């Protein structure tokens, strides 16, 4: 009896699978390649001796110990590559699901709180609803984010990826969607391999890219480290100190420093309240300010005694001037890159969040007495508008010929889950039924609902009446209660008269009704009178 029950249950499951609707696939879509930012790719450590693999980024269990033993690195100035301290380990990026596995959920084993390690997950789910198909029109490119954005190994992998996507999609050009530092990687590739970029790429959509750096975020990262996970998961994740030791040897971080030759509207500063001996021998507290290029000496002094213990060996990890030199060359590549004539570029950036721009250590009451203590001090920030990580000023300054630049409210990584972003992407990618009335900059649809026009001409007099109505459809309902009365606007225009000219006059009334449930009705009623002087 139990076996029959199992058979019946199996048949029922089979029937459910048979009746399960197949995902919608649009064969006419152009392929999309998703490129993540820093810390946005799963990394695996491969043992040279036995070939065993284990995920070292991201993981919750044994996160800190595996991170330190496998990912801590040293920069090799002869190659421009950061190499793991463990000589028996190589770091690789998984390629399953056409590259999407590595950039989807960064810790697939995490059950509780998995949203904290989502990267492109929500966007992938959304794009599949639009008709994209993994391996046909949807692909991912993960990479070792410790490395420089112009490391030739990474650029070679990206070139091969573009070629494979192009072939897999039947020779269709590619839409690249990059996030954060991934945009710098794409821009480096575009600058150094413009011919390959133009051959395979149709559109490049950059999201939340720190084109001129992330000044406040990176300055405090150099001095204090950073945590990539918020909330309770921090208790099981990599410590800020462990992350700090990795990032000091990462060229990618140096390439995210504030661009020193950019003409900042708001100059980012490193400020320190310091206690110094005055000319009369009495200690004085003064506020010192350093511009991006000037702050290097502070980083050098602060990190002069920094070191780690690795396998019983003490390894000094000061601020790395060789990496800084390499990063300056990267900034040069980025500044000279241009969008090829056959490619369209779009820039989306986050707004409406307090974003660290200048960093201050110490206070007038508790000044810093030893610069080496900055590593153990909590900074305060002077903030500007941005996405919480990248200031608007930096994100907008792409230095490229852009088809559009659009700011939308959103947090740096959370912007990848924003419905507003999806509406814009869907419009630019021409996914689904394109809406010709959608305005991605202001995020609304103006939908004509009524159009009537009548004209009467008699005895040299022409009278024309016009009636037109629209529905403005938006998901922003924040101001719908601001004005519950209709707004009425009247406009009158006249021309003439003179002995030789005709006369005309027009009058229009516009009624804007209050917003209701995401819709706003607008009416236009107009009449014009034209009198021919020759009649």
TrEMBL record:
Domain of life according to the entry: Eukaryota
Record GO terms (molecular function): O-acyltransferase activity
Gene3D superfamilies in UniProt: alpha/beta hydrolase
One of the Pfam families matching this protein, by short name: LCAT
A Gene Ontology BP annotation from the UniProt entry: lipid metabolic process
Protein name (database record): Lecithin-cholesterol acyltransferase-like 4
Lineage start: Eukaryota, Viridiplantae, Streptophyta, Embryophyta, Tracheophyta
């Amino acid at each position: 009896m139990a076996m029959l029950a199992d058979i019946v249950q199996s048949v029922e499951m089979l029937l459910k699978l048979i009746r399960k609707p197949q995902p919608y696939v649009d064969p006419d879509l152009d392929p999309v390649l998703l490129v993540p930012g820093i810390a946005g790719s799963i990394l695996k450590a491969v043992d040279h001796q036995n070939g065993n693999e284990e995920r070292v980024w991201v993981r919750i269990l044994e996160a800190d110990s595996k991170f330190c033993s496998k990912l801590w690195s040293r920069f090799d100035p002869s190659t421009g590559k950061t190499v793991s301290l463990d000589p028996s380990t190589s770091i690789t990026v998984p390629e399953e699901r056409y590259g999407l596995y590595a950039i989807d959920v960064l810790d697939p084993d995490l059950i509780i709180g998995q949203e904290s390690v989502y990267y492109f997950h929500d966007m992938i789910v959304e794009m599949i609803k639009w008709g994209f198909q993994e391996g046909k029109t949807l692909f991912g490119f993960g990479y070792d984010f410790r490395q420089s954005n112009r490391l030739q190994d990474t650029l070679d992998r990206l070139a091969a990826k573009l070629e494979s996507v192009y072939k897999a999609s039947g020779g269709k050009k590619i839409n690249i969607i990059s996030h954060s530092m991934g945009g710098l990687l794409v821009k480096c590739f575009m600058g150094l391999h413009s011919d390959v970029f133009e051959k395979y790429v149709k559109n490049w959509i950059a999201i939340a890219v720190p084109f001129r750096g992330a000044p406040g975020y990176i300055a405090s990262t150099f001095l204090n480290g950073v945590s990539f996970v918020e909330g309770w998961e921090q208790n099981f994740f990599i410590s800020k100190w462990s992350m700090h030791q990795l990032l000091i040897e990462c060229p990618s971080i140096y390439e995210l420093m504030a661009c020193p030759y950019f003409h900042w509207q708001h100059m980012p500063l490193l400020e320190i309240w310091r206690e110094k001996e005055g000319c009369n021998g009495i200690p004085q507290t003064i506020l010192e300010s350093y511009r991006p290029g000037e702050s290097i000496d502070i980083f050098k002094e602060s990190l002069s005694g920094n070191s780690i213990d690795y396998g019983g060996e003490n390894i000094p990890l000061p601020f790395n001037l060789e990496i800084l030199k390499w990063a300056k060359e990267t900034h040069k590549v980025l500044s000279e890159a241009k969008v090829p004539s056959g490619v369209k570029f779009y820039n989306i950036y986050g707004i409406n969040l307090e974003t660290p721009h200048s960093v201050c250590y110490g206070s007038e009451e508790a000044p810093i007495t030893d610069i080496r203590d900055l590593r153990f001090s909590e900074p305060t920030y002077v903030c500007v508008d941005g996405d919480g990580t990248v200031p608007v000023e930096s994100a907008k300054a792409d230095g490229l010929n852009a088809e559009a630049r659009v700011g939308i409210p959103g947090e740096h990584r959370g912007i990848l889950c924003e419905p507003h972003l999806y509406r814009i992407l869907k419009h630019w990618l021409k996914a689904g039924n394109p809406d010709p009335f959608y305005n991605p900059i202001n995020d609304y649809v103006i939908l004509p609902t009524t159009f009537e026009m009548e004209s009467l001409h008699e005895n040299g007099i022409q009278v024309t009446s016009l009636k037109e109505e629209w529905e403005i459809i938006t998901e922003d309902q924040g101001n719908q209660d601001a004005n519950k009365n209709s707004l009425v606007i009247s406009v009158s225009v006249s021309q003439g008269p003179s002995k030789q000219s005709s006369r005309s006059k027009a009058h229009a009334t516009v009624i804007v009704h209050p917003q209701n449930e995401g819709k706003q009705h607008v009416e236009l009623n107009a009449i014009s009178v034209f009198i021919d002087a020759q009649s």
